[in-house]
Specification:
The chain is mostly helical and 456 residues long. It is built from 24 helices and 4 strands.
Amino acid sequence: ADADITVETNLLEARFVWGSASLFTAFDECFRGRFDVQRFFDGKLAEQQARHARYDDSAYKLEPNLKDSPGGLRDLHTIHWLAQACGLGGGWTGLARAGLLTAAEARRIAREERALATLRVHLHLLARRREDRLAFDYQTELAERLGLAATPTRRAGERLMQRYYRAAKLIQRANDILVQSLRVRVFPVTAPPQPIDDEFQVRARLLEARSADLFERRPAALLRAFIVLARHPELAGFEPATLRMLWRGSTRIDAAFRADPAHRALFMTLLREPAGVTHALRAMHRYGLLARYIPAFGRVVGQMQHDLFHVYTVDEHILTVLRNVRRFTVPAHAHEFPLASRLIAGFDKPELLYLAALFHDIAKGRGGDHSELGAADARRFCRQHGLGREDTDLVVWLVAMHLAMSRTAQKEDIGDPAVIEAFAGRVATQRRLDALYLLTVADIRGTSPKVWNAWK
């Protein structure tokens, strides 16, 4: 156990089944006497980080490992083990009794745990061996076994996987919140808070709401929290109680919230931040607020893409493309794509590129041309958020045309002057050409870590 955290975890779970009760009691007393909660806690977190790294820290690969990927069953097991180490038994109900979850949250997590366990059993039976990877070959039959049928716009396997990805997202949130909550419970932070403004403060490099009812009194703080996160790169994340407040407060983001001009202005303020935008938007997505604020984005959460290029779900791909565009703006990465870095440095409103990245694939899975449908969504969003006509037209054009450059470059004869003339006619201006080039490079790089190459 001293040399292997896995052995120590097994011993932590030991229970008397049969044999000498006195011998088991002696073992248990010996184990408890040498058990170091801090060492175990640190060891399990290091183990989890290493496990996530093996799967590229993504729950949204198209063939995820439902046990070991981020958001898989092992993340729930880790919570159970850390709770046991902290002296909290009773599973999810025990965590609710300890005040770390509400009863409804405990029931929801338990339901998702049972659903994943059931899916894993069916996967083993279907493969006739231990198999934890939800490979394409199994997805359709697994869906049928679980009573999921195809719809006019989605395959049965896609419906199954969207359920899985949404469960994985919930599990990731629960893991984030509960692991931090358990850490604070066992190892309380004694450092005094440092105020940022009248709503937020920093405590031990974590962002904390200054009052327990902040998001109820000031719903706009749900967005301001992520602006503050973007502006303070020294922050490691949110304090556990604030995380729980954000998770529960996300339901306040409804049609009335989205229609408030002050809230729309805050979202555009976030997009215009000089740094931290990707980090903030990924956090909004992780805790369910981005899907609430942009309902069209919510519809593609967990949406699969069946082609030879995309290895991520639509929502993960969109945020990866946004990250790639943002990466062009960072001087430290200018050597990766010198032309893209020069172009974006001279682009007057990079937030328009971020909006195009957010909306370029947002209509996938609805049926019809996703570029046209996404362009309509983008136009509505831009108008609602006060963008001028010229800026709105550029975002809408980029979403509608986001495949045009790659199709022309890779599928047509670019040695034919007529092809170039036709393409130039569709693009029309240097600003559009620069913007489309930047979005195209970011988009191709966002399909898979292995797709981009020199000739593309």
